[in-house]
Design a protein that fits this description.
heterodimer, A: mainly alpha, globular, B: 6-stranded mixed sheet, 4-stranded antiparallel sheet, 9 helices
Chain lengths: ~280, ~260
């Protein structure tokens, strides 16, 4: 870690880089934002924005379970609960008895409510309020290790399964006729989203995480004409908003997550205005 | 177009030397029944489909046509069996199905080009990384069979109904399947596009060992191009040559007398 710190100090000889928390935060941003840029495009293509939002809300319950059973590392219960939650949602979605939106909404509310009930017992919720807006400045090197791990896993997944995932988003029956194992792929993707969201949610914030997933992809759609441009723009916009947001939040002393979202939103509206010119 | 087929086809070994389908492959659909949530959607479906023939499935909305296609594709749970038999030597083979869907989930403003769409089915190299020359050439070749190679770099969401359909047909027939399933693939297409579509299907079924099932509402085209017609409403009401089905009592009860 010290080596990485030194590299950062050499490369970025700014006063704010002398603090370890800023270096950690910058490393975290450099891992989270490209990952979200990539994942966001797939979520938008597969119309899963509501699904990822519900997963984010289930973090409350994941944390609550961890607190009840006295886990030292809340990551474990959050990730495990989110995986179970995601697979359960997929199963119910496939039954097709009720509209998917309704089902996801019910699960999302229930996931928040159970968590909030447990965490607010004895008026203790203020202790956990930082997870609402996130606190990337408090990230530790060990937590960065988790992020790095999920980053590598996600890149391997995208590298091997992207085309199949893309085919699935276009037409399920067509993908099925080409021998793509839809259910398995759908479940793996849901688990992937669950893990990525859970391992970054305490740094980005429950209220902000879906915006950070959707905004870069939505902005990229306004500029791109093919899949390569789409992903390239999305990753660049996501990283740009993340780095600029971190710096701005440092200088004007605001919460980092929301600052990043405001910048990403500004970029989105900018692309909306320039869309007629580039397309 | 025919010359292009023969020259450029990637799977030309399947192209019969005499230019005719052998007619010796048979798909036997036996006692298919589909129940969803306790309700029977379709039952008692028995069909024999031979290669080199176009079988059209017709019926009013909600008759279970799409469900039957999904059962054939193995997408919904069903009772009964679907066998693919080579009648020359009596052996059973795995059935490869090509499918042209009714809709694809590509809205306006979706950054997916025709290349991205096609490459996803024939290559595992992630399309978001790099446009590989080898894959690009392959896609171009598959599109050229339907005179669609110029569309390769266009956005899928900007294609006309007929263009999209030719692209989808090229995806469904790469590689050439044993059975081509077309689920109402001709919505929003003008008359020229329709004629071209049916001529393409005709060429495919005559020159390859493949059978075609088409779900459609275009009764006039079916009368002109189909070899067999199946009229269904939960089960099969009438089956046979177009003329005999079109004159059957069940047909007149469903669509009125259009003769």
């Amino acid at each position: 870690m010290n080596f990485v710190y030194e590299v950062f100090e050499r490369l970025l000889p700014f006063s704010f880089m002398q603090y370890d928390f800023m270096k950690n935060a910058l490393i975290a941003v450099l891992i989270i934002t490209p990952l979200f840029g990539m994942l966001g495009t797939m979520i938008v293509n597969n119309k899963m924005a509501f699904f990822s939002d519900a997963l984010g809300h289930s973090a409350f319950t994941g944390i609550a379970i961890g607190v009840i059973f006295g886990f030292a590392d809340l990551n474990v219960t959050m990730v495990l609960f989110a995986i179970v939650f995601a697979l359960l949602l997929n199963r119910i979605k496939r039954r097709n008895a009720v509209s998917t939106d309704t089902i996801i909404s019910v699960f999302s509310s229930l996931g928040s409510a159970i968590g909030l009930v447990v965490l607010s017992q004895n008026g203790n919720f203020s202790k956990y309020s930082s997870i609402l807006v996130g606190d990337i400045l408090s990230i530790t090197p060990a937590e960065i290790g988790w992020l790095l791990l999920i980053f590598v896993v996600a890149m391997i997944f995208f590298g091997t399964c992207f085309n199949q995932l893309h085919s699935m988003s276009i037409n399920v029956s067509l993908a099925n006729s080409k021998g793509i194992r839809i259910k398995l792929l759908d479940d793996i993707f849901a688990v992937m989203i669950a893990m990525i969201i859970m391992l970054s949610i305490r740094w980005v914030g429950i209220l902000m995480i879906n915006a950070l997933l959707i905004l870069p992809a939505a902005a990229a759609r306004n500029l791109a004409e093919n899949v390569r441009e789409y992903h390239g723009f999305s990753v660049v916009i996501s990283m740009f908003s993340g780095i600029l947001g971190l710096l701005v939040s440092y200088f004007v002393n605001t919460a980092t997550g929301p600052t990043i979202i405001i910048i990403a939103s500004a970029v989105f509206f900018l692309t909306l205005l320039t869309k007629p010119l580039v397309k | 177009m025919k010359e292009q087929f023969e020259k450029k086809d990637l799977v030309s070994h399947r192209l019969r030397k005499d230019g005719k389908s052998c007619g010796l492959h048979c798909i036997k659909i036996k006692d298919i029944k589909v129940e969803i949530g306790g309700t029977t959607i379709i039952e008692d479906i028995n069909l024999h489909i031979h290669c080199g023939q176009l079988t059209a499935v017709i019926g009013k909305n909600g008759a279970g046509k799409s469900t039957l296609m999904k059962a054939i594709l193995g997408e919904v749970k069903h009772q009964g069996s679907i066998e693919f038999k080579n009648m020359q030597n009596g052996t059973f083979q795995d059935l490869k199905i090509g499918y042209v869907p009714q809709h694809i989930n590509i809205e306006k403003n979706t950054p997916t080009s025709v290349f991205d769409l096609c490459a996803g089915y024939i290559s595992r190299f992630p399309v978001f990384l790099h446009k590989r020359k080898k894959v690009y050439e392959k896609v171009k070749e598959q599109l050229s069979r339907y005179d669609a190679e110029d569309l390769i770099d266009q956005a899928v969401c900007d294609l006309s109904g007929g263009e999209l359909q030719r692209v989808l047909l090229s995806i469904a027939t790469t590689p050439i399947p044993n059975l081509l399933v077309l689920d109402e693939p001709v919505s929003g297409i003008d008359k020229n596009g329709m004629d071209l579509f049916y001529r393409n299907i005709e060429y495919l079924k005559e020159h390859y060992d493949l059978a075609v099932i088409l779900v459609s509402h275009d009764l006039e085209y079916i009368r002109k191009y189909a070899d067999n017609v199946v009229l269904m409403d939960r089960s099969i009401l009438a089956e046979g040559r177009p003329e005999s089905v079109f004159h059957s009592e069940a047909f007149i009860n469903t669509f009125g007398n259009i003769n």
